[in-house]
Amino acid sequence: MTEITLKSEMRAAQIVSPKQTRLHRLDVPRPGPDDVIIQVKRAGICGTDIHILHGEYSLAKFPMVPGHEFCGVVSAVGERVSRFKVGDSVTADPNIPCNRCPSCQRNEQNQCQRLEVVGVSRDGAFAEYVSVPEGVVFGIGDMNFAQGALIEPLACVVWGLKQVQIQTGDNLLIFGAGPMGCLIMQAAKRAGATSVTMVDRAAWRLDVAKELGADHVVSSDALGELRKIAAEGFEVVADATGVPAVLEQCFDYVRARGKVWVFGVAPDHAKASFSPYQVFRKDLKIIGSFALNKTFQESINLIQSGAVKLEPLISHVLPIEDFEKGLELAEKDPKRMKVQFSFD
């Protein structure tokens, strides 16, 4: 094992049970033979973390340290680790597949039947240190840590785009101009979408989307404008809100032979309604994209190339001692985008 001198205890934020949180001191993890210990520098709050907080995400196991969007510096490595050394700047894919079950054997690791997820089913990165196997670790070079903590969200977008298969010349409509919607917009344009229209109820979010390259922005109070932009509908309509009622609206604006992309994370008990006849008559495709599947390196490449802009998506940076405040901001503040915790 190679390591710097690790403390015996670390600061960590826990969700003890639904709606119960605490700041706690836990033992600093020690690496097994194939493990990498990362000293966390930045970690972002995801909508999934809010669902976990409210007991709305069945994959979560309590008590647990959340946090699956993160980056940092290698502080220790196991004896069989060969690709990384102490001091390297890294991130990690939080999804740890078994690589043995039928899903993994079909190269569908995000559907692994024994999937472990950092910050969901095992302790995550809202702590000073996190332990992950070497196989899910990626170097980030000289990328800054604010950007590094957005690699995982972008990797989810890249996986979704692989599922949806944007075609050159497609017109795309996105409901939700938050961080994920703005990442989808930027990546979709790189993938060939000719025009991207974004809908949100917050005017300032639409301003950010326009600044980042959205071709059209529409207030959720003026949806009639969408017919002026694409009279016959859009080739792809994506929900990036996770709100079932918004997903239902997607079907009103997709053109015949188009695609409805279910990207936003709804509570696991939520239901949405649509017309089966409409799907049948219009030759529609309904496409889901869960998490990511081997798309971390593409995400890193996009960021390093400058193809996506990330800084306007970060609205708040807080110390981990403000854990509850961060969750409150991420869930309720009308002017939030991405909320990150800093361990600098």
| Inertia-based shape | globular
Largest sheet: 8 strands, mixed
Beta-strand portion reads 25-35%
Question: What's the number of extended β-strand segments?
Answer: 18
Topology order in helix (H) and strand (E) letters: EEEEHEEEHEEEHHEHEHEHEHEHEHEHE
Q: What structural class do helix, strand and pairing data support?
A: alpha/beta
- Helix fraction bin: 25-40%
Oligomer: single chain
CA-CA gap between termini? 25 Å
Instruction: Please count the helical segments.
Output: 11
On the 0 to 100 scale, the average pLDDT is 96
Give the radius of gyration. Answer: 20 Å
Q: Unreliable runs, pLDDT <50, ≥5 residues? A: none
Which properties best describe this structure?
single chain, 344 residues, alpha/beta, 18 strands, 26% helix, globular
